[in-house]
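comment on this one:
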Amino acid sequence: NQEGKMAAVEANALSKAEHDELCCVYAALALFDEGLEIDGEKLQKLIKASGNAVEPYWPVLFTRALKGRDLNDIISNLSAGPAAAAPVAAAAEEKAEEKEEEEAPEKEEADVDVGGLFGDEEDEWQIHQQAI
């Protein structure tokens, strides 16, 4: 019986990427609830104040993904469920994998097209370079 539980998985059982994504979601919701602008700096500050730490690209990804979007609409349309968060998680996991690959002996890199999910492709490359 799942009634009364916040989640089916304990927080300590989450992968690093899932943990980081969840921290950003909660921080974004807290900022939104207070009527504050959601930006990378505020997300990072709130996450740090909560005693957590995330990879530096997460707040940037969330800021870009939410830019110009109405969170009331997003929250109201939760029937889309986890599929709505999947592109953000997939992009972040790809970046984490790229970072791990860069630490390993040099291998041939493959281009990954995220379909302009976060805006201009040139901006995405700059974000990727900053995160490395």
User: Anything to note?
Assistant: Residues 82-103 form the longest helix (22 residues).
